[in-house]
Amino acid sequence: MRPGEGIISLWPLAVLVIVVILSAFSITPTTRLAKTIPADFADLRVAGAANSALANQYWKTATGVIQWKYNRSEVLPEQVPSDFMLASYGGKALTAQEQAARLAYWAKLRDEWPRPNNWNTTYAFDLHWALRGIQTVSNEVLRFIHQT
To answer: What's residue 148's pLDDT?
Structure first.
């Protein structure tokens, strides 16, 4: 504001509004399956006994492979995907007990999947969306210039 004119300058307010809007668009939520194994999953009894090491391996498969294949809001299919396999099996044929464990852990994962406490959401400040937009506009301008 200029003291003698009684006019308020609005450009600082406009800059502040633009910064707030850009900041809001730059906060990106990321939801991932929790690294900590749920108690129900760890306590699953397969062939009459709970095996926490086996449960941990299947949970690692879920966090390392399955969460990237399926969306959190999706219902996991009844059919066990070929990706839900322990690395230690190395592509060999599974015994009946190993196959039963795989099916049991898949069924339990299907139960655990929709529960919100099995997911962690983090927020990050990311300006890549703006950089991609600038790059797209510059590519289009350069392409237009080269066409004329």
So the answer is: 74
Question: Quick one: tokens of 25?
Answer: 């668009």
Of the CA atoms within 13 Å of residue 33, those in its CB half-sphere come to 23
Which residues are 123's β-sheet partners? Answer: 29
SS3 43: coil
Spatial distance between the Cα atoms of 20 and 14, rounded to a whole number of angstroms: 10
CA distances 59 to 5, 11, 123, Å, are 69, 54, 24
pLDDT tens for each residue of 54-89 = 999 999 999 999 999 999 999 999 999 988 988 777
What ranges make up the beta strands (E) of the chain? 27-33, 45-46, 49-50, 119-125
Q: What is the residue-wise DSSP string for 63-83?
A: IIIIHHHS-TTSPPPSSPPTT
How many Cα atoms sit within 13 Å of 85 on the Cβ side?
A: 12
Which one-letter amino acid corresponds to residue 60?
K
Structure tokens at 125: 């400040």
Mapped onto helix, strand or coil, the DSSP state of residue 118 is helix
Q: Domain residue spans in the chain?
A: 11-147
